[in-house]
Amino acid sequence: MMTATTTAPRLVGPVRGGGFKGALGFEWTKIWSVRATWWNLLVGLVLTVGFAVIVGMSADASAKKGLDVTTPAPHHASQAFLLSQLTVVVLATLALTSEYSSGSIRSTLQSVPVRGRMLLSKTLVVISVVAVAGFVFSVLGSLAAGAFMGDYGAYTSGELFGTAFGAAAYLALLATMAIGLGTMLRSAAGTITTLIMVLLALPQLMGVIGAKWLETAGDYMPSVAGTVLMTQDTDPYSAGTALVVLVLWALVAIVGGHAVLRRRDA
């Protein structure tokens, strides 16, 4: 994961074309004009495919020892998102927090004065990039894992694309959470640390402590819901419930970010 300073286009007035379409074009130009976007996508791809290969080789080795590892390769490959999701967190976080650290948020708000419009356009641009990336990562990771698993990882086109669409939705909603939290904290380090705790540390701690109510609460953490959504599993709940859980997390974060953005100075 790489970080870089984002420098927004230096505009002295509202963006040309005005309105929501102009705001979207403004944000689209910004996200592709910084190296951090390209680096994070590249690292995410390498992590996903690389880890999927390792998972596939491990499954094949276990099968040869007599263990039952017959699982569709896309479901095995979804384990790779445990790492690659962090690159998405970094990408989405830097899309906003880097503007605060560089001071370019003033140019952004001068160009798109309506703060809600600015936040919505930035969110839509980021999640569109992330969703496409997640879909591609998942398909390539599934193909890589399947190449090493052979018949043990046989899968249908429905399983391949079901996992890919699940990954796209999960990462898009995760990016929304990152933007919302980044808007509240205005700190890349604080946002990334908080999300790592929510995604990785808290679910593990809730399971280790042993309290039943904590275990149940842990089932509704974003990473658990994301896994269910990608694998179309029914434990601890259905993919539809997983999507609702992720949408609620994303809504809380982005609504909170919007409320804070409206109340304070840039």
Determine the fraction of residues in helical runs and give it as a percent range: over 70%
Unreliable parts: 1-12
Instruction: Please report the total strand number as a whole number.
Output: 0
Can you count the helices? 11
Order of helices and strands: HHHHHHHHHHH
User: What number is the mean pLDDT?
Assistant: 87
List keywords for this structure.
single chain, 266 residues, mainly alpha, 11 helices, disordered N terminus
What does this structure look like?
This protein has helices at 19-32, 35-64, 73-77, 81-102, 105-111, 115-149, 157-185, 188-209, 212-218, 222-231, 239-263. It has 266 residues and is mainly α. It has one domain (19-263).
Task: Describe the secondary structure blueprint for this structure.
Blueprint: H1 19-32, H2 35-64, H3 73-77, H4 81-102, H5 105-111, H6 115-149, H7 157-185, H8 188-209, H9 212-218, H10 222-231, H11 239-263
Compact overview of the structure:
The chain is mostly helical and 266 residues long.
